[in-house]
Amino acid sequence: MRNPAGNTRNDLSDVLAALSSLYSAVVCDVLDGLGFRQQALSSRVRPLTRARRVYGRVFTARAVAVTETPREPYKLQLAAVDALTRGDVLVVDGQETQTCAFWGELLTTACAHKGVHGVVMTACTRDMWRIDELDFPIFGIGCHPADDKGRLEVVEMGGPITLAGVRTNPGDLIIGDVDGVVIIPGEVAPEAIRRAREKVTGENQVRNALASGMPIGEAFRKFGIL
User: Fold this and answer.
1) Does 197 fall in a domain?
2) Which end of the chain has fewer CB atoms < 10 Å from its terminal CB, N or C?
3) pLDDT tens per residue across span 121-149
4) Got the DSSP string for 32-75?
5) Residue 106 belongs to some domain of the structure
6) Chain segment 72-101, per-residue pLDDT in tens
7) 3-state secondary structure (DSSP) of residue 224
């Protein structure tokens, strides 16, 4: 499922525009209300770049630890990057590997040129001195100078994966910031976005009321938002 909100480029553009005004905590709250209470990735997955906000459509890959260099190293890793399109976020199950860097500057440059929205992975990156100049968000579990050749290899792309405790499929939505990363299942994405936008409006009203001196208990009784 590549586009949870519709089948046209305009549909995806509308979804991305809506996501751009949201944040992880409010999305988590509305997903709780929809019965999806385990959508936040483990706190081990954090922003690694100066660009600390990511959102878009999930494109999945799964990598496994290896001890020998494959005959065609990087084959599916490069295929995944080539398959990404504007608005995608590459979401990688990297098995929490901390012995090498799955990501780097050249992959980042390729993705930034295509309008890819970022990378979220249970793996490490490197080349941070250069990546931070590209304003491209990378969320992961750390940095490491060693190359992934002969250490971590993509074995599948475009299928369901589980990373940091959350199951996701291609076409789901993802949003992340300094609070963490949340997967929005494609089947509830339109309703989740609608409710999240309503909650943001409500939170703005509560904030204004509190700034004007309203006691927080009274504000909660009036607005039902905390």
Assistant:
1) no
2) C
3) 999 999 999 999 999 999 999 999 999 99
4) HHTT----BPPTT-EE-SS---EEEEEEEEEEEE-SS--SSTTH
5) yes
6) 999 999 999 999 999 999 999 999 999 999
7) coil
Amino acid residing at 191 = E
Residues 6+ apart with CB under 8 A from 45: 120, 121, 122, 139, 140, 141, 163, 164, 176, 180, 181
216 domain residue, yes or no:
no
- DSSP class of residue 158 equals S
Domain holding 169: CATH number?
3.50.30.40
Query: 49 Cβ partners below 8 Å, 6+ apart?
Result: 128, 131, 132, 136, 137, 138
SS3 155: strand
Q: Residue 114 corresponds to which tokens in the numbers above?
A: 């295509």
193, 22 Cβ separation under 8 angstroms: yes
DSSP letters spanning 92-136: EE-TT--SSEEE-HHHHHHHHHHT--EEEESSEE--HHHHTTTT-
- Classify burial at 171, counting beta carbons within 10 Å of its beta carbon; exposed 0-12, middle 13-18, buried 19 or more: buried
What distance in Å separates the CA atoms of residue 19 and residue 17, rounded to the nearest whole number? 5
Q: How many CB atoms lie within 10 A of CB 150?
A: 14
